[in-house]
TrEMBL record:
Protein name (Swiss-Prot/TrEMBL): LuxR C-terminal-related transcriptional regulator
Ranges of residues in domain HTH luxR-type: 115-180
Database matches in Pfam families: GerE (PF00196), PAS_9 (PF13426)
InterPro entries reported for this sequence: PAS (IPR000014), PAS-like_dom_sf (IPR035965), Sig_transdc_resp-reg_C-effctor (IPR016032), Tscrpt_reg_LuxR_C (IPR000792), WH-like_DNA-bd_sf (IPR036388)
Protein's UniProt keywords contain Transcription: yes
Domain of life: Bacteria
Species name: Halocynthiibacter halioticoli
Gene Ontology biological process terms in this record: regulation of DNA-templated transcription
UniProt KW keywords: DNA-binding, Transcription, Transcription regulation
């Protein structure tokens, strides 16, 4: 990579990272800064350090794998965790370089969307439900995906509405995904 290409990679306004089997192999400075680390601290580390819990790290693994197997790009919005424990919403995109083994070598981008309100702490289950809600899924669909009852999902949704002081799901998602100022 020549100097100009390296500069473009480093100064890109979104975080870019290359992983092999969920291990960070290379990243730009924007990615490291977004998560509160230096590049040196991230290279060689598992992506697990960027998630709130091991369970969350494991549950996200296979989301989008079918898109990647077909050679496509996968994109979603997810809650990530910075080094200091602060949670934030980000736009995530991935493309595999090895469709036959999608996680063997993946290029990803991360762009911060919002900050989760500091006074609100979401449980791992609440984060799962919010992620599904952000994809427009119904309580019944979420329940099937998570092997729970629709009533459990409704209870989690009601708890989220109370926590964030909103009256409906669109307002909940708007509050969580409003653009940073």
């Amino acid at each position: 990579m020549n100097d100009l290409e390296q500069l473009a990679f480093e100064e890109c306004p979104i975080g870019i990272v290359m992983s092999e089997n969920r291990i960070i192999k290379s990243c730009n400075g924007t990615f490291a800064t977004l998560f509160g680390y230096t590049k040196k601290q991230l290279i060689g580390e598992s992506f697990q350090i960027l998630y709130g819990t091991y369970q969350e790290f494991e549950s996200i693994r296979d989301i989008g794998i079918e898109h990647l197997k077909s050679g496509g790009t996968y994109s979603d919005e997810r809650i990530m965790q910075r080094r200091d424990g602060q949670r934030f919403w980000c736009k995530f995109r991935a493309r595999t370089l090895t469709p036959e083994a999608p996680l063997a070598r993946v290029v990803m981008s991360f762009a911060a969307m919002t900050e989760t309100p500091e006074r609100v702490s979401l449980t791992p289950r609440e984060r799962q439900v919010v992620r599904h809600l952000s994809h427009g899924r119904t309580s019944k669909e979420i329940a099937q995906q998570l092997s729970l009852s629709p009533r459990t999902i409704e209870d989690v949704r009601a708890r989220l509405l109370r926590k964030l002081g909103v009256s409906n799901t669109p307002a909940l998602l708007a509050k969580l995904t409003s653009i940073e100022s």
